[in-house]
């Protein structure tokens, strides 16, 4: 029995595995591409990782963690909030952000894994090429 999504923590609501799903329609593929475009930004990925590490941060703390100005961070947070990836709460004059969609955590972990595996394969290929050239 598969666990039900936990709405409180924004768990991914899609219980089907990729193999259980029908082929993406052109509209679904376009929507997925739009999500990937927002995520395909080094600054936004660093902000997401900082939020995963800390659970919740205000703009000034996020800015300090990634070495950016608060206004620039706010602009990036808005893009992520527009997709529903982030949520915020106000405490007085301070706004705290957290990752709302827990699927993002998994995507970051899978992306990191893919990057490391690709890097390993690339270095093996480079070593093989050098060896064969000698």
Task: Describe, in plain words, how this protein is organized in 3D.
By secondary structure, the chain is mainly alpha-helical. It has five helices and three strands; from the N terminus they run ααβααββα. The chain has helices spanning 26-39, 42-54, 59-66, 70-82, 103-133; strands spanning 57-58, 86-91, 94-99. Strands 1-3-2 form a three-stranded antiparallel sheet. A hairpin with a 2-residue loop joins β2 (86-91) and β3. The protein is extended, with a radius of gyration of 19 Å. It starts with 25 loop residues before the first helix and ends with a helix.
Summarize it.
The chain is mainly alpha-helical.
Gap from first CA to last CA: 56 Å
Helix/strand structural class: mainly alpha
Strands in their spatial order, largest beta sheet: 1-3-2
| SS summary, helix count | 5
Query: What fraction of residues sit in β-strands?
Result: 5-15%
Instruction: Please state the average pLDDT score.
Output: 86
Let me know the number of strands: 3
Helix content: 55-70%
Radius of gyration: 19 Å
Biggest β-sheet, characterized? Answer: 3 strands, antiparallel
Helix-strand pattern, N to C?
HHEHHEEH
- Choose one word for the global shape: extended
**Low-pLDDT residue intervals, each spanning 5 or more residues:** 1-10
